[in-house]
Amino acid sequence: GLSMYARELGFPKNLSIYEKAIEVYENIPQHEVYSNYIETLRDMAVFYKNVNVEKSINLTLKSLQLHRNTKGINVDSLTTLSNLADYYCEYGNYEKALYYNTIVLDTRNKANPKDYNKIRISNLRAASIYYRLEKYEEAINLAEKNKEKDPITYSKAWINYMREELIATGNNKDMIDRK
């Protein structure tokens, strides 16, 4: 009830409602409210993203822990894991972002490897993370691997830009030949 009402209010008015909902959920036997509690934590994390990304990370980790305790990691928890990868990117912790993004990609690929629409966002995030980590070759390889399925996102200009960065760092001269 409270968390549904909070969604309708919009940010930042809804934060106090979400906080009240969490207070209520924390005082009810957990087995009765896991789904609502998890959803409220996840929603609140989304709203905090632009205000306090560290709080978003903590709320999402708490949501993920509750999810693991009840259902384990499965396709249903991928939104939470995907959000966590985004929050760690925003926070600048690219290693953790890549870790959680890899879990999402592996799970999606095992669940339905032909459903490229769901896999594409995680692939693009991975390429972006590799780029930020200055692992240009990994970013380029991933982009080239996905270019056929998603030519607009993985444009030639974007891939060439990453190649130029790779060449500029002197990490791999043979990338010039792949242009």
Tell me what the structure shows.
The chain is mostly helical. The protein has helices at residues 2-9, 14-25, 30-48, 53-70, 78-91, 94-111, 116-132, 136-147, 156-169. It is elongated, with a radius of gyration of 19 Å.
Radius of gyration: 19 Å
User: Which regions are unreliable across 5 or more consecutive residues at pLDDT < 50?
Assistant: 173-179
Biggest sheet architecture: none
How many extended strands? Answer: 0
Mean pLDDT: 76
Structural class by helix and strand composition: mainly alpha
The dominant shape is elongated
Fraction in helix: over 70%
Helices and strands, in order, run as HHHHHHHHH
Percent of residues in beta strands: under 5%
- Secondary structure tally, helices: 9
Task: Give the end-to-end Cα distance, rounded to a whole number of Å.
Answer: 56 Å
Summarize the structure.
74% of the residues lie in helices and 0% in strands.
Features:
179 residues, mainly alpha, 0% strand
Topology (SSEs and partners):
Layout: H1 2-9, H2 14-25, H3 30-48, H4 53-70, H5 78-91, H6 94-111, H7 116-132, H8 136-147, H9 156-169
Helix pairs in contact: 1-2, 2-3, 3-4, 4-5, 5-6, 6-7, 7-8, 8-9
